[in-house]
Amino acid sequence: GGWHLTPHAIKLNERMRKIAIWPTDTGSGYLPWIAFETFKVIEALDLLGLHDVAEGGLNGYFLASQEERDVDSGFTEYSGYTWVHPTAFTDNDGYMCRKDAYDTRHPAGHGLIMLAAARHCRLVGNNVWLKEAAPGLKKACEFSLRQNDHWNKEVPKESIFHGLLPPMQQNDFYGESMRIFFPTSILYCAGALAVAELFVEERIDGGTELLQASERWREDLRAKLKDAAGLHRVLKIDDGAYRRYLSYSPFSRNSRRFLKRYDILMECMHSSLLAANYGIMDRSDPFFQGIMDVVEERYLTNSYKNNPMPSAQGSVLESLATKDAWFNLGGHGPQTGWNQSTDLYLLCDDVPLFLRALYNAYAVDIEPANGYTFWEHPFRTGARDKVHGEAVFLERVRNMLVMEIGDTLWLARATPRVWLEQGRKIAVKNSPTYFGTVAYEIVSDVDNGKIDATVEMPARKAPQEVALRFRHPKSALIKSVTVNGKPWTGFDKDKEAIILKGLTGTVSVSAQY
Q1: Strand, coil or helix: what is 409?
Q2: Pairwise CA distance, residues 377 & 440, whole Å
Q3: Which of 27, 192, 232, 480 could form a disulfide linkage to 214, CB 3.0–4.6 angstroms apart?
Q4: What distance lies between CA 446 and its chain's CA centroid?
């Protein structure tokens, strides 16, 4: 994966790169580097340990763009389409999308680049780069907060639009009027929070003020997301219950037109899933759990059966939508790289649904005949070599094996059970984490009632705990554990996790069944 992503990171000089979301020679007419999807390629490169390439992508095309901003309030002729200026923002000072039309009509990329930059700093622990990038990242935060502040002065606090961003165009819906969109507000707020939290931790000037302002914005957003859900119609799920649902825009009422055209296509950017995935909404909130039911049953499984698309892709999917569709079609939407529910299944520790989504999405996207490249959309539609989709897949595999959740570092959180059948092993080496590099090897001897592991603990920053999971091939429960040859009581047999605390260096773990 790293070998394939790197050639798409075009070197400008020793410190700068342009990182594409598909090959540059497709003849599509679109510039293949946009903040909205390049951010995920940058994150995947970082997770694979290719930090210099990822850093070059942040330097070369986004932080640098702040110095090259052209304010253009007129029309832009691009690839056969006339697109109006895509936002009603008050200014562009600190905006990290490029001035070309394809980037700026995907304005959520500004917040996503902030998220990628904050993640880069946590994975690398490079304070030198953070100090260099801090002025640009601060301007990016201030830009986001300034647009929100300006908008809040224009609308009353009780309005459903309060706490959001000014109107804008978004994504590939050509010719649509400017609208208010939840996803962009969510991602700008999440990006500002991520950078501000990093600034506070690293004692960068202005961090406290930015964090306080970003937290106030988050509270506004949380309130308005629930207000909007109360105004939308509820949707029926398979067990006969009705659930609340949040659309992509505060004024949408899910008319049949919206349900067929927008909410299916926009599932990949579903507002509530973005809010939960990026910390704007609490994942334990019953409101969110109800939304997950809607997404699972109406969109990931039955969207094509209930709302068939007028295309070859829709026909194929409709013909496959049988009684077993919850499994065969479940877990992926019209663009699997933007299906947020896969990541949320893992965050919520629903491993079977995560694995189903991961493998189903891979099956419908992968093209072995083209060098194992990823199609943009399921069943061989869209771009044939979508690097963004590949980056998303690589990140999910990495999180299956190594994943940070708060101050906990998870190891082997979601590996398939067959990976630990008798004699098999799982090995990870040189994996970057927020706490430093980690490595481990798990060896199965389940026929003799045990699974052993060796863990090289991260040394840069101690996590509160390391959670090591052994997913036994027959779901057997752990009876006892030893760590470094001594009895260890820190394990949760129901969660199949051994909790390692207060340990450094190389640690030997053995579970008995």
Answers
A1: strand
A2: 35
A3: 192
A4: 35
Report yes or no: 188 and 110 within 8 Å, Cβ to Cβ.
yes
Structural contact between residues 345 and 357, judged by C-beta atoms closer than 8 angstroms: yes
Is residue 449 exposed (0-12), middle (13-18) or buried (19+ Cβ within 10 Å)? exposed
Q: Token digits for 506? A: 């190389």
For 321-439, where are the alpha helices, taking DSSP H only? 325-328, 340-347, 351-365, 387-401
Encoded tokens for 80? 């056969």
Secondary structure (3-state) at 189: helix
pLDDT value at residue 247: 73
Sign of the four-CA dihedral 299, 304, 308, 311: positive
**Contact (Cβ atoms closer than 8 angstroms) between residue 54 and residue 46:** yes
Are 17 and 57 in contact by the 8 Å Cβ rule? The answer is yes
Task: Count other Cβ atoms within 10 Å, centred on residue 507.
Answer: 17
343-to-293, 336, 384, 395 alpha-carbon distances in Å: 15, 11, 24, 10
| Tokens at 125, concatenated | 């622990």
**Torsion (CA) 271, 277, 283, 289 in degrees, nearest 10:** 50
- Three-state SS string over 139-154 comes to HHHHHHHHHHHHHHHH
Cα separation, 384 vs 365, whole angstroms = 9
Rg (CA), the chain: 23
Token digits for 233? 């119609």
- Per-block average pLDDT, block size 10, for the chain (513 residues)? 87 88 70 88 96 92 63 38 60 81 82 96 92 94 95 89 87 66 92 97 95 96 86 80 80 52 49 85 83 74 45 46 55 79 92 92 87 83 88 97 97 98 98 97 98 97 97 98 98 97 97 98
Residue 160, classed as helix, strand or coil, is: coil
The residues near 239 (Cβ < 8 Å, ≥ 6 apart) are none
Closest CA to 101 of 88, 84, 116: 84
The pLDDT assigned to 403 comes to: 98
- Bridge-based pairing of strands 81-84 and 75-78 is antiparallel
Neighbour tally for 246: CB within 10 Å: 25
CA distance linking residue 131 with residue 117, whole number of Å:
12
In contact, 244 and 287? CB cutoff 8 Å = yes
φ, ψ dihedrals at 11, nearest 5°: -80, 125
Amino acid at 188: Y
Helix axes 351-365, 387-401, angle to 10 degrees: 150
Give the tokens for residue 321: 């939508």
Tell me the CA distances in angstroms from 473 to 54, 243, 402, 417, 476, one per residue in order: 37, 35, 20, 4, 8
211: region left, alpha or beta (phi > 0 left; psi from -120 to 50 alpha): alpha
pLDDT of residue 176: 56
Q: Beta 408-411 vs 402-405: how paired, if at all?
A: antiparallel
35-59 residues labelled b (16+ CB within 10 A) or e (exposed): bbbbbbbbbbbbbbbbbebbbbbbb
